[in-house]
Structures are given as C-alpha cells and as structure tokens.
Amino acid sequence: MNEEFRSGDHDAGMSGGCVWEPFVITKEEFDELVRELQNRGMSHVEPPESVITRTDWHIWKFEYELGIPSDEHYRLWREEEKWGQLRKQADEAGDQERMLEYHLRAIEAGQTLVRFITPFVKQYHSKKQDS
C-alpha cells in the first residue's frame, strides 16, 4: 500500500483518478486501518509474500477474486508492458516508424490480455447475478 500512497496519484483510466500529497504509513498504522475497515464490515485477506508491487497486488487480486491464473496473467501483462516501453523509447528517440510499430504491437498484446481475462470476468459477474 505504501507504493500507492508514496506515488501521490492514481490514474484510473477513463474513470478518472485522484491526486494526494505523497505519504507512507507504518505497520502499526496499517494494522489500525485494517481493524477500522473490519469494524465497518470489510474483511482482510493477507496476500502471499510474493506480492510486492502494485502490479503484483492487482494480478494476485484477480486470481483470488476471479480465478484468473496469475502466471499467464503476468506473462501477458509483461508482453503488453514491453511493447509500451519500447514505444515510449522510440517516441523519445524521435523514431516515429518504430514508435508506430511498437504502439500497434502494444495494442495487439493488450487485446490478447483482454481476451484472456474476459471469460473469467464474465463468469464472475454471472455467478454474482445468480446469487
């Protein structure tokens, strides 16, 4: 959570986002936050020790809540991220031809990731509607 708090912003894509003064919390403050949220009816699930970054957490959460296999999710996410980084580097270097090529590959990788995730999301929503 401190990675998120320290960043000072959260880009929520088309949903907007928010900005705050960056900060960190101690383990004791985190425990207090968990207790307060539990008092308000929420539950706390401790992620595995392998969850370190914001991306780790999101991918673990998708596996925990939606059943999306994290190994394949990571692989597809890294593929999209790789092309996005290459696109950014080509753009910064002024290489518009490669920038466009990498941009298209990032889009293709993103579409592959979406096709992988979508059945799990649909199944999750279907189960929620049935209950």
Which regions contain 5 or more consecutive residues with pLDDT less than 50? none
Q: State the share of residues found in helices, binned by percent.
A: 55-70%
Q: Residue-averaged pLDDT, rounded?
A: 92
Largest sheet entry: 2 strands, antiparallel
How many structural domains can be distinguished in the coordinates?
2
- What structural class should be given to the helix and strand makeup? mainly alpha
Shape: globular
SSE order, as H and E?
HEEHHHH
What is the CA-atom radius of gyration, in angstroms? 18 Å
The count of strands amounts to 2
Number of helices: 5
The oligomeric state is: single chain
Strands of the widest sheet, in order across it, are 1-2
Strand content: under 5%
Distance between the termini: 31 Å
Task: Describe this entry's structure for a reader.
With 131 residues, this protein is mainly alpha-helical. It has two domains: 1-44, no CATH class; 52-131. The chain is 69% helix and 5% strand. It has five helices and two strands; from the N terminus they run αββαααα. It has helices spanning 2-7, 27-39, 54-66, 70-92, 96-130; strands at 9-11, 17-19. The protein has a two-stranded antiparallel ribbon. β1 and β2 (17-19) form a beta hairpin. α4 packs antiparallel against α5. The radius of gyration is 18 Å and the shape is globular. The two termini are 31 Å apart.
SSE map:
Elements lengths: L1 H6 L1 E3 L5 E3 L7 H13 L14 H13 L3 H23 L3 H35 L1
Antiparallel strand pairs: 1-2
Helix pairs in contact: 4-5
